[in-house]
Amino acid sequence: MTATYTPLTAMTTPFVRPASCASIFTSTSVVDYIINTDSYGYGYTTESSGPLTTLPILVSNTADARFSACQPTGWDRGNVHFSFRPAVCPSGWIMYNAAALDQYGDHRSSSAYCCASGYTLNSAYHLLGSSTPTGLRCLSSMPGGPTPTGPATTSATTTSPPTSSTTETTTTSDDLAFTTTSTILYNTLYPAGIALHDPYLIEWHTTDLPSLSPAPPSPLPCDATLATWTPGSPVPTLNCSSSFESDLHSHGSEWGPGTTAVIWFCAIGLPLLFFFAVLACVGCYCRSKVRERDERRQKEVVKAIEGGMVVYRSLEEGNAALLAARAGTHGGGVGGGEKVDRGVDGGGQGGTAQHGGVGGGGTTRAGGTETSGTEGTTRGEGAAGTV
Residue spans with biased composition (Gly residues) (predicted)? Predict the structure, then answer.
């Protein structure tokens, strides 16, 4: 099952309740008494009860058909009755316990209770319970209150919360403190009885102020509570539990609307900026160290590569020298062979010429041919040797 949210009804102007609505009550009663507490040293205490008293009570008669007609539209809307937002108190009513719901930020929401004139906000949970989570109700002394119009009912209870107390302290001869506390309950504060009704719970946001008349006090500083305020009257000075917040809010209106933001920035923003600045410096330092390490490794790699290149060039030069040496040896052998061949060729030619000469001479003497030929050959070889 999906829960649904019902928005509260707005009440931007004071609701005017008809005078006839002030007497729609029913009567009942409770048993009330006084509690005396005696406290001794070392935490020893005793309690005693005062006389029992039947206390008459007048309660709003919600069963009366006129009751709903006497309430603003939407009074029974939402999870809690008599709640309105944004809203102001009804005409002639008094505001109680005004406090900020959102204690931080420039846009704040506030809440307060409203009681009819002549009533005060007080705890009444142990009397009859309450429709409010806190058990608060608007109480008034019966003699000056309205006359009941509904049927009378009777109920009894043996417990009631205290509304005030008196304390007397004495010191015995053995220097042990003796304290007597008398808790005064409703029968002392309201001897003739109590008239009560449920308070109106109103809420408003800072942005709602222009539409509310009369405008409620807002924003309420820090955790301060405005105990009581008559709509339209000046707002009293409120004290914060924190001296810093008290100074902040007491001077905020004098310094201007932007001063509060500046003060919060100085108190919170600057420390955060300093923290992030230190964090950034640490990050930069770490990155620089990583960069230096990478550069050092890169230089080592480059140096190793350069050393390898030197060795490679040395090997290359050695190979070149070896190839050159081999090439020179092969060239000398070829040249010598060519010279010998040419010498032989020359010698042969010379021999031929000589042989020709001898041949010529041999024409005269046949025996000279062989000798001349031999000599020519020898000369030819000599010629070859000369070349």
Answer: 345-365
Q: Note whether 182 and 64 are same-domain residues.
A: yes
Burial class from Cβ neighbours inside 10 Å (0-12, 13-18, 19+) for residue 185 reads: buried
Q: For residue 23, what are its two tokens?
A: 């007497």
**Is residue 3 included in any domain, yes or no?**
no
Helix, strand or coil, per DSSP, at residue 153: coil
Give the closest residue to 14 by CA, choosing from 232, 207, 219, 208.
Answer: 232
CA 344 to each of CA 266, 330, 335, 373, 376: distance values in angstroms, whole numbers, following the listed order: 115, 22, 14, 16, 13
Amino acid 93: pLDDT: 94
Distance CA 39, CA 35 (A): 13
Residues 205 and 120 in one domain: yes
120 vs 122: CA distance, rounded Å: 6
Residue listed under structure tokens 């539990």: 241
- How far apart CA 95 and CA 252 sit, in angstroms, is 25
Query: What's the whole-number mean pLDDT along residues 170-176?
Result: 41
Model's pTM, two decimal places? 0.51
If asked whether residues 169 and 305 sit together in one domain, one would say no
Q: What is the mean pLDDT of residues 114-130?
A: 78
Q: Which domain holds residue 67?
A: 9-237
Domain termination residue (choose one: 173, 207, 237)? 237
Domain finish residue from 313, 332, 351: 332
Number of domains into which the chain is organized: 3
The 3-state DSSP class for residue 171 equals strand
Best-predicted range by mean pLDDT among 98-107, 201-210, 342-351?
Answer: 201-210
